[in-house]
Amino acid sequence: MSSFSAVTTAYRRAWARRRVFVPIYIAVRLLLVALIAPGVAVTVNLAVKLSDQTALTDQAIAAFILSPAGFVAAIAVLSLFLLAEVFVFSVMAGSLRMGEPDPWRAGSSAIGLILSRLPALFGFAVRFVLRVLLLILPFAAVAALIAWWCLTEYDINYYLTFHPPSFWIAVVLIGAIGLAMAWVLIRRLSAWALSLHLVLFETVHPAHAFGISTSRMEGKRGRLKIELALWLGVRFVIAALIAWVAGLLFAMVPLQGASHLRLALTYSLLVAAVWSLAGLVLAATALGALAVVLDGFFEIRTEEPPHPEPRSLRIPVFAVVSAAAVAVLVGLWFGQTLLERVQAPDRAEVIGHRGAAALRPENTMASVLKAIEDGADWVEIDVQETADDVVIVAHDSDFMKLAGVNLKVWDATMEDVAGIDIGSWYGPEYGDERTPTLRDVLAAAKGKAKVIIELKYYGHDVDLENRVIALVEEFGMQDDIATMSLKYPAVQKMKTLRPDWRAGVLAATAVGDLSGLEGDFIAVNAAMATPGLVRSVQAAGKDIYVWTVNDPLQMSAMASMGVDGLITDRPAKANEVLRVRAEMGPAERLLLWLATTFGMSIDTQAMRDESP
């Protein structure tokens, strides 16, 4: 049989058993959410407590992982995630090998077998993670060295925006390193293809499974690589076809006139739901096909795993009734919570990101004044110190992205700054824009809008916090400003220097309990925002802001979630969304919330820089 025939046969066999594979896949995924997720959360929280903080953000995460305790915790978390995937695949492989046609019996039998081997499976997951990390480490080190060599002369945002030759050199070299790493990984992973089967079905110790698998796969690895590539290709083609059909259906959304909004959203959500269901069926079928492919390479050399007696698998009637009652109560609670959320008045304030960065060149007086004109409650800016000790408004470490000038902010004097045009990149009409000072922004905003001052640190700050404090107190704006930073010790320092001032933590990524960090608010990437995070932060007496929210549907979803601030490049658009939401009934708000939940968006202008 050719490799292509073997793969198509595997998909046909998996599709023939869809009534077994799909329910098992869904049930096991739900089971893992209930079992593995809490385990991961407990492990992460225990690990974070070793750092003497309730949460770690951004650079602190990397520093912690490189510590001995952090490395052990990272391996444990990765192993739990891998165990979850191993569990799903093992159930599919076990149900396939048992050949039971009834989904409940097949799933129960397979899960029973896997639970009996759970310690061994976790040991397998830990060893697998360590082996893969050892393979990746040298390639990652070389890639990091290339990035340091090619991408550190200027601020990283310059490279990401303009893609100079050094950027492409780094892309090519790191790409070549990635291909070499992929080749090594494919060689090793194809040799280990039977290691999980050996642990599961032959009770081989995890420490020996990799070596035995390598021996048994001798002479078969080439065929396996071809079949796995074909398996992946078939899955990709089917997924593309499903997406194409969904795209055709989305193109038929009735958008004529505002009166059709409810019909359009209902139709779109129906299409999205069917698309999601099709994707779920494809995922289950493809995983089943993979189990069939790998099973073809495995010849069991011990007795077949025992099949539980069918009668031992029957569920008592009271268990079914109890489960149904719990499901109904959970559904009622969720529905009531959702209804309260969409009915609650919006509490979000509008925060202009670097002014109104979608409509004017960022961090300029033109941008600040536009944000004030557009009714922003807050204007958010970034500040650093110059060589002559002036606090200026600048995000990057240099002027390369905005002006093509290779000058670090901490090396620049105000005379240098006065000669650098930071507006022409946006449009010739802004050619007279120069980097403003914090004094300029405070003077413009006083009595009109509050100001969020993000303290930027690139390792050359001298006395940034005290200089900011002096300027704010000079203008008497203590109650009209807030400070924030990606650097948590800076937030703690500001709270020490001025306990009564608002200060907050800015987090692009985080692990642990953000609500326990010092400060008055947390500003997170919108992708991190969840109802649970919003509730926990607000329950701790803090506000939560989300950035950078420019899509109207996402603005509405964040408002429904109850966030306290929308950090946006489009303050006028955010105010318009909040105004329209105030006029909507619960049904319209619910439809908008569901639309965002299914990943829908309204096209908006792409920003050059999405960083905080």
UniProtKB/TrEMBL annotation:
KW DNA-binding (keyword) present: no
Entry's EC annotation = 3.1.4.46
GO molecular function terms here?
glycerophosphodiester phosphodiesterase activity
Residue stretches making up the GP-PDE domain = 348-578
Tell me the SUPFAM superfamilies matching this sequence. PLC-like phosphodiesterases (SSF51695)
Keywords linked to the UniProt accession = Hydrolase, Membrane, Transmembrane, Transmembrane helix
Which GO annotations describe the biological process of this protein? lipid metabolic process
- Mind telling me which InterPro entries this protein's record contains? GlyceroP-diester-Pdiesterase_M (IPR018476), GP_PDE_dom (IPR030395), PLC-like_Pdiesterase_TIM-brl (IPR017946)
TM stretches of this protein:
20-48, 60-84, 132-151, 166-186, 228-253, 265-294, 315-335
**What is the enzyme's main class?**
hydrolase
Lineage: superkingdom: Bacteria
PANTHER family according to UniProt = GLYCEROPHOSPHORYL DIESTER PHOSPHODIESTERASE, PHOSPHODIESTERASE
This protein is called Putative glycerophosphoryl diester phosphodiesterase 1
Species annotation = Ruegeria meonggei
